[in-house]
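Researcher: Here's a chain I'd like modeled. Treat it as a single chain, no partners, no ligands.
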Amino acid sequence: MEYEVSKMFGIAGDVAIVTGAAGGIGKEVALGMASLGAKVALVDISEQQLNKAVKEFQEKGFDVIAIPTDVTNEESVQAMAAKTAQHFGKIDILVNCAGVAYLEDTVTFNKEKWDWVMNVNVTGTFLTCKAVGKYMVEQNKGRIVNFSSVRGLQGKAKYSAYAASKGAINTLTKSLATEWAQNNINVNAVAPIFTLTDINRSILDDKKTYEWVISRLPKGKLCETQWLVGPVIFLCSPCSEFITGDILYVDGGWTAS
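Model: Modeled as a single isolated chain. C-alpha cells:
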C-alpha cells in the first residue's frame, strides 16, 4: 500500500471547534489548525477577548467564526454546536482547552472554588463532548481531544480540585473512546506539564516552586504552548486512525523520571 504522508497528517478542510480559544493553549491550537487549512469555531466565555482573537485570525486569511459560550451551561453549549454545524455544514474535530485552576490547602479549601474548578474542567468537557458528539455520531466520524494534565496521574499538595478534575477527564476520555469507537470517533487526551500560560504564571512566579519544577524536568525547561500544537493535530489527523482512549503526556520526561 502506498502512503501519502502529507494526507496522513492533513486536516485541511476539516471543521474544528476549539474551546478556551481566546488565549493561551486554546488560541495556539486553533491557530495551528487554521494555518493547516482547517475551518475553526473559536469558543470562549469572554466575548471581548474572543472577538479580538478572531480579528487576528481573519487578518491572516483564516476561515474562523467566534461563538461566545459558557461551557458549564448546557443550553449555551448546545447552541454553540448547532451554530458551528449550521455555519460550516459539519463538525470533524473538537478540542477541549477550556480550563481553570485553583490551589489551596485542603482543610481550608473554598467549596465555591471546588465547584468552579469541577464545573469548568469536568462538566464543561462533558457537555461539549455530549453536544458535539451527537453530530459526530450522526455522521459516523470525528476526533475529540480533551486537555488533561500530569496532575491527572500524579497528585500534589494544594491541587486537590485540579488534580481530581484532570483525573476525571482521563476516565471520561477513556469511557467516551470505548462508547464511540463503533461510530468511528476517536477520543484522546493530551496531558502537559506546567506550561507558560496566564494560569500558571502566578504559580511559577514563586521562585521555590519554579526551581522545584525545573529540577524535576529531564528537559530542564518549561513547556511552551506551541509545543502542544503538534501532538493535538496528530491526534486529530488520519495518522492517528487506530489511537483512541489514550492519554498523551507532553511533559518533557516528567512522568518518566
